[in-house]
Amino acid sequence: MANTFLRRLSLPAALAVLTAAASAFGAGTAHAADPGGPCDPRVSKYGLYEVSTAVVEPVLTHWKGITIAPGTTGSIETTVTEVQNVSTTFNASTEINSEVGAFFAKVSVKVGFSVQTSKSSSSTWSQKVTLNFSRPGDYAVFKGTNRVQGKADEYVCLPRDFRYPNSGDGYWAYLFGSHPVYSTFDAQIEGTVSCDTPVSPGTVQELARNKLVCH
To answer: Are 85 and 122 in contact (CB under 8 A)?
Structure first.
């Protein structure tokens, strides 16, 4: 129906309709700031993403409870068990190409710390931990990180003038309704806590201490 309608219009009128459609393509609800800059639709039509939302939460990835008996303090090596795995994903895929890697670099700017920008998983972290204990007691030996999850806004490169789609002169337009989901994480955090260790709320340390049986 739409194609029939355009064929009935004169060329200038048809171009006006296409221009209006392109404007609507980039309009809609609130989204990330306009990335700006020109683009070439012949080369890079897709692949530009901006950060829409970013939620940071602590995640406990490895944990083990140990008891240090009197007379056994000092340097101790132990193996922690994986509790939860975190990885870099984009729209449920663990394959991170250069465009998605550039997006994760923008996530780092958004949250204020460096996140993983390539294929990565906390399962690759070594499970052995060597620590020093100065007094006996019950301890939690742990590893963890801060996970970042959210949505992205997607942009597509459109010709600036639809009469010349192969001119190479284009602009990035917001792709309404496209919100790829992502997940990534911060650097490794590891250490020990006991029942009387002061911890800050909303931290990996708090999650580790909460798994101890404290009386």
So the answer is: yes
Please tell me the predicted confidence (pLDDT) of residue 32. 56
CB-based contacts of 180, cutoff 8 Å, min separation 6: 49, 90, 91, 151, 152, 154
Q: How far apart are CA 144 and CA 62, in angstroms?
A: 6
Model-level pTM? 0.78
**CA atoms of 49 and 172, how far apart (whole Å):** 10
What residues form DSSP beta bridges with 64?
A: 141
What does the pLDDT read at residue 215?
Answer: 61
Which residue's entry shows tokens 């609800």?
29
Dihedral-angle region of residue 92 (phi above 0 means left; psi in -120 to 50 means alpha; beta otherwise)? left
